[in-house]
Write the structure tokens for this entry.
Amino acid sequence: MQNKENNKKEGTNRRKFLKLGLMSSVTALAGTSLVSNLSENAEEPKSSDEKIRLLTPDGKMVEVDAAHVNKYPEAHISSDESRKGIPNRKFVMVIDLARCKNARKCVEGCQKAHKLDYNEEFMKVQLIQDNPEASPYWLPKPCFHCDEPPCVTVCPTGATFKRTDGIVLVDNDRCIGCKFCITSCPYSARQFNWGHKDKFDDKSQPYSPETSVPAAEGTVMKCDFCPDMLRQGKLPHCASSCPMGVIYFGDKNEDIVTNGEETVRFSELIKDRGGYRHLEHLGTKPNVYYLPAVNRQFPLERGFNVDEDIIERYKDVPFVQDLKKQGKI
Amino acid sequence: MDVKNRKRELVKEFLPLLEKTTKTSKIWIGILIATILVGFYAFIIQVIKGHEVTGMRDNVVWGIYIINFIFFVCLSYSGAFISGILHFFKTPWKNSVARIVEIITVLSLIIGPIFILLCIGRLDRLHYLFLYPRIQSPITWDIIAIMTDLVGCFIYLYLTFIPDFAILRDNSKKASKWRQKTYKFLAIGYQDTDSQRAKLHKITRTMSAMVIALAIVAYSVLAWIFSLTLQPGWNSSIFAPYFIVAGLYSGVAVIIIAMYLIRKYYHLEHYIRKVHFMAAGAILLIISLLYGYFTFSEYFSRWFSHKVHDTNLLNTLFTRYFWMFIFANYIGVLVPIVILFFKKLRTIKSITIVAIISIIGLWFNRYLIIVPTLETPYLPIQDTRPEFIHYTATWVEWVLSFTGVATFILLFILIMKLVPIIPMSGIIDNERLYKRKLKPTTKN
């Protein structure tokens, strides 16, 4: 018990620290994109009298015209920039299976942010029963952002790439739609845009591989770990929209992860709770870890409080078949 | 003088085949062109509406386009392989079939890659493959291999055409003007002098060896596209040799069918004889044994070691795809073996029927390698949309597949209108050899 309290205390301290760390990185990056924005907009000399002081990534103070400042969150990360990754970061996600009750808020939050349709899910919640005797559990499944990504190896044009911060992204301006990455991903994390949709034409938000919006016909898309949020020091949409705090996200270099409520040491969390990676034997070295579904906070059946259509997805799971036989669903 | 007369005779014999088009062949050409037009319509629909019109979805992202791609490319590689061997070892009876094999090689290598293009979501960005190439990707290897092979096979085919172009140029004074001009252009001044002939033979022989090597490399790379992934049904170390054997299997079968049809419709019984069918049948027997052995090893080890994901795949194969599996891997292998094994059962007709069975069986075998694997990924498919769970090819895909076959046959017929399907130069070479062998005996 005492240990736990200690953990929590340390947790809150850690959280502050993480926030600070992420914020400082944001300022640094804001600097870079500001400078590049300045050079891009050089031909529009709409100068105002107001000057603003800014800190550049290498620590120099510069004064720029206020009219030239592109306020950060709206700053556009170009395809070239998005290939670099956020310096000194190594992003990692930990999903606590003991707390998931298939509320699907992560799915919805992700869909809203990435302008996905009802059936398009970067984050999927699967019902897994490892064997007929085993207790089934809900498995939220994003892209695992592997350290040995098979999808990246097979891409013939470099449209999908691995960044220094561990994130695997897709540049849909570069993708030729050969689908080889989809067949080589053992986790079925990737989706293809089979036909044209009106939302592809909505150019109000300029395309960036970091937001995956707007998607494009005939190209591949997948979970991107929301680098646009990370640059602002915020959690990815799935983590921030989960009411149960199932999804922890953080930086392996700093050894901290947070679900928005508590902040903990990544290594301790994995050690204490028996964290594992899915299908470890494939050697893809995922950056998404799972905490096994022990001492659950909710009975599994709570997860069936969703649309009929969604329940129907799980019809092949032995447990669901039993439930159906008993007339419970 | 003797040779010149003989050439004239041969041209007299073969020119009608080139120039005259019978009513039945006109009807056939009409049907083929109609099929191609429908295919063109289907292609336009696919371009406008996107890949939504196909049966492919997020789980089964590759469908019968890829299967046709493998099928045609493997036809080509096996053609190259066989014709290379025929030339390299100077097989005595090769002359009558050599050109059929060479034409199959080149044509299928043109048709095959078209199918992979149909599979690509953004055809408008195809040049990115060269703008931003990544050498790590097996697709890049495949592009390099196929392009090299295509160039190699084209050169090889052309080399074997040159002497015939020269003969036709010298002896077709009555033929239409465009024909004379084409032959003159294509013969590139070949006069069939002894030194020219020796040079051409040497180059052709070198090319025939290179074409064999190219075929092995290129086909292995194609197999690696699948076997280098982690998918349960694909990640197999025997895929490359398995694909090569399977390729030879379908290649020999297509050659037999082509021989049968050409012999029948062009009345070439004098050139394409029973001995050709018997020899091809014997080769098909050997390859079918090999192919059956590879197929058995592939599935047997999966079944015996029964890893979960392999078991899932086998369950799918033996439930949803039961009859296809039986046809592809039992009937498609065992029936040819049985018929070809007994000498009494080997007739021209039975060998041709066996060839048809083995081709269909092999196509289904490819289907079973591609589709069920994609339907049973590591993480179970949990979806309610039927088209995302199982793959069924749509009419667009079928039409385009048949268009591929139709284009293949049409181009074959058109090439047969340009050069005689039996190499005239080969006939003369054979007669020359025969005479040389006779001379010493007459002297004694």
Remarks:
- Chain A has ten helices and 13 strands.
- Chain A has two domains: 2-75, 91-291.
